[in-house]
């Protein structure tokens, strides 16, 4: 039997959308590489290879679990709004990894049932890249001390369930909270706040690296081996992020560009705002770096800027973006100092994702107060186009609910892993280095480097090897 053909699924406009979201997806993957470079410079040389291996694997696991079931969970909001019977089971049937819509050529799908199927299939890949970014950010909170196995389990659960559920509630114009006035653009709630909470729990339960806060007689502690790699990672991040973020919205024919919350926006202002956030965050980070003689903030100030302004990049005026990103970077620095006081060993992810994310979510409630959001074209009643209004109160409620959800799931997963397979490598393995522990081969580029060796009796090594 000849397969059906629906020409409305393969128009020139849809191919332009395919290309648009395809570029955004590739740029999200580049962000995974950027995080790898940043961490590759911040870890000690003896852990650089394992840093890359774990990051690549955890990114693939997170993306794979989003493909398996996570994207279908996000799609439930559309099935509910459009009145599809049994929306949860129908969305999963259509969009899980082996679902009809996920494995059928778009021109063979009836547009009355699956409109713009090609676009949503590419958007599925976009979500997979989104989950990969979330997984590598969680990995960054356990650098140089957390075992691979629990990290991979965390990547799977975060990518397949936790991040998708947060996406369903907070990201997309028909999501329950968005349709009541919550606003987001780049995924501050579902990605950064969720990841920030998980990172905080992971860094707390794993404990600090040896020598991080207290002197240790066998190591100098965690000293970055090459800030040049980290700088290259920031440069790659600055290149990829604007194109990735433009994928967080709808390009609607002759009507224009709308943020993912269905707020009126524009390509030009959204792109301009991203670069202005680089300037605001980067300048604030430079001030902090010179004042404290800490080069880290000269690098991550850029990320602090765009995360702090991330929820409102589609609706803010550029001068507002500058103010929000500049102030938000100091919030990130304050979170960094608080973690140091609490002896929690995470210099990037919790300050950026949790500190910057919460500030950014609340800032959007101030910048966007009174703006229309939510709903979808052609719908009536509670899902009418732009039927909700942005408010600081709804932004704050979203923060509380997201933090609570992430805290409960994070504690269950991370403490559960700690009590079963364990989180942390053995002390002698950490001292020796994870490259040698996991990947000792004659051809390893790090094999001939001196390593710290502790014998069965725990004898102290004869020389410092960090």
Automatic annotation (TrEMBL):
It comes from the Bacteria. Residues 442-466 are annotated as: Disordered. Coiled coil: none annotated. SUPFAM superfamilies: Ammonium transporter. Its main location: membrane. Keywords: Membrane, Transmembrane, Transmembrane helix. The chain crosses the membrane at residues 20-43, 55-74, 119-139, 151-174, 186-206, 227-253, 265-289, 296-316, 322-339, 351-370, 390-417. It holds the Pfam family Ammonium_transp. It is found in: Membrane. Gene3D superfamilies: Ammonium transporter AmtB like domains (1.10.3430.10). Residues 20-438 form the Ammonium transporter AmtB-like domain. This is Ammonium transporter. It comes from Longivirga aurantiaca.
